[in-house]
Write a structure and sequence with these properties.
The complex is a heterodimer of chains A (225) and B (199). Chain A is mainly alpha-helical. Chain A has eleven helices and no strands. In chain B, 27% of the residues lie in helices and 22% in strands. At the A-B interface, helix 6 and helix 7 of A face strand 6 of B.
């Protein structure tokens, strides 16, 4: 075990180009997915929060339900949509980074919605009333209120990133672990483990762990400010 | 409650209240420039509901409000909560909420003794200071109708005097109509205050 870990650290230290290319793919796919989830999730969440307690409650239930989906179920669902015989087969997106980002988007979106919606629902009604009564436009109201719950927005973003970056099932099914194209840290760890190359699996696992810890540390720093 | 003149708003068959609460019928009235009203009544008599309805924050249960300014949702009316909400950031950021001119910002801050506090974090203010910021914020937005819920809670004597002077000036200039809900007497030197009691 110690020997394998030593070899793993040596692999990282020697900056194996393939390893770093895989790190780049992983970060690129996950950041794209999270960016899309935030861009769509924040306005949707704000609209849900404004639409009354029933709509917000249904939105919260839906977000929690989707957040609980196993990643392989998300991957399989999108696989059937994107496969050659599926309704979106014509897009030829299966086994591309876009398909992987779509899968991670589905995993990330409910986390953003659930965390931010909870915070917006806890915000005093007088916050929005103050904005309305001072003639603040609806678009600016959204910006002001999301700023009021910025800690929750930060938590939602980092939780979504952690979920997207560390998931395996959807990336494996939608990306296919194609070398130089759709191979990510998680799919490569699984491959090397299956092949019995423990040192490489440990090296990639350590990098995965380092990025996840860095993301959570960043979230902690933001929330302590 | 009927007034004539240049009405900023006029009500017709107005009933106010919260969902699931007791509806409160309000006699028809017109609110004119320079008017000062003091709403009194026991807890639950509808003072806050009426103020919020006039501000456009609460839908009337029945009846309608005809406003001179039809474009804006708030109809030129600004409502100040009994427990004001201050946004994260500095006092300046809060007073600048409605994008007042620099002169208005400075004037409102000066009247309420907030000039030395403008760059302070609003979260660190005392209750009384928060109320002063909320009043300054409302004044800075130059409302045609100012609706204030329990303005005097938490204000010290100086802030109370500043609030009365500021409102007296605005009302005297004919710029603003003022409706105050309060359990305490509402007095402005040289200005007639109409007391309206809600049952």
């Amino acid at each position: 075990m110690f020997a394998e870990t030593g070899r793993a650290l040596a692999l990282i230290a020697h900056r194996d180009p393939e390893v770093w290319q895989i790190v780049g793919v992983s970060l690129g796919v996950s950041l794209s997915a999270v960016t899309a989830a935030v861009a769509l999730g924040l306005p949707v969440t704000y609209t849900l929060a404004r639409s009354g307690s029933r709509a917000a409650s249904i939105g919260m239930w839906l977000a929690h339900s989707v957040a609980a989906l196993p990643t392989v179920v998300v991957g399989l669902s999108l696989y059937f949509l994107l496969s050659a015989s599926g309704p979106l087969g014509w897009t030829r997106l299966l086994y591309t980074r876009t398909a992987m980002a779509a899968g991670q988007f589905v995993l990330a979106l409910p986390l953003v919605v659930a965390v931010v919606l909870g915070a917006l629902r806890r915000l005093a009604p007088s916050a929005r009333e103050t904005l309305i009564t001072h003639g603040v436009s609806p678009a600016r109201q959204m910006v002001w209120l999301l700023w009021e719950v910025r800690l929750a927005v930060t938590s939602g973003v980092f939780l979504a990133f952690s979920r997207a970056f560390t998931e395996l099932g959807s990336a494996l099914i939608l990306g296919g672990n194609i070398r130089g194209a759709t191979r990510t840290l998680t799919t490569y760890v699984a491959l090397e483990y299956n092949r019995g190359d423990d040192a490489r699996a440990i090296a990639l696992g350590l990098i995965l762990l380092a990025v996840a810890v860095a993301a959570n540390s960043l979230m902690h720093v933001f929330s302590e400010r | 409650m009927n007034d004539n003149g240049h009405a900023l708003l006029q009500t017709c068959g107005l009933t106010v209240g919260y969902a699931g609460g007791t509806p409160i019928r309000i006699a028809d009235f017109a609110l004119t420039k320079g008017a000062v009203w003091h709403l009194t009544g026991p807890n639950g008599s509808g003072k806050t509901a009426l103020l919020k309805t006039l501000a456009g924050l609460l839908r009337p249960i029945a009846g309608r409000i005809e406003r001179r300014h039809r474009g804006a949702a708030h109809g030129g009316a600004v409502y100040v909560h009994s427990v004001p909400y201050l946004f994260a950031g500095s006092v300046r950021r809060n007073v600048l909420l409605s994008h007042p001119s620099r002169d208005r910002l400075e004037s409102a801050a000066d009247v309420f003794g907030l000039t030395p506090l403008l760059d302070r974090d609003a979260a660190t203010l005392s209750h009384g200071e928060q109320r002063r910021v909320a009043l300054a914020r409302a004044i800075a937005s130059a409302p045609e109708i100012l609706l204030v819920d329990e303005p005097e809670g938490g204000l010290d004597d100086d802030a109370l005097a500043a609030w009365r002077t500021c409102m007296a000036q605005a009302v005297d200039a004919g710029d603003t109509a003022l409706v105050v809900a309060s359990h305490r007497p509402v007095e402005f030197e040289g200005i007639r205050v109409t007391e309206v009691r809600l049952a």
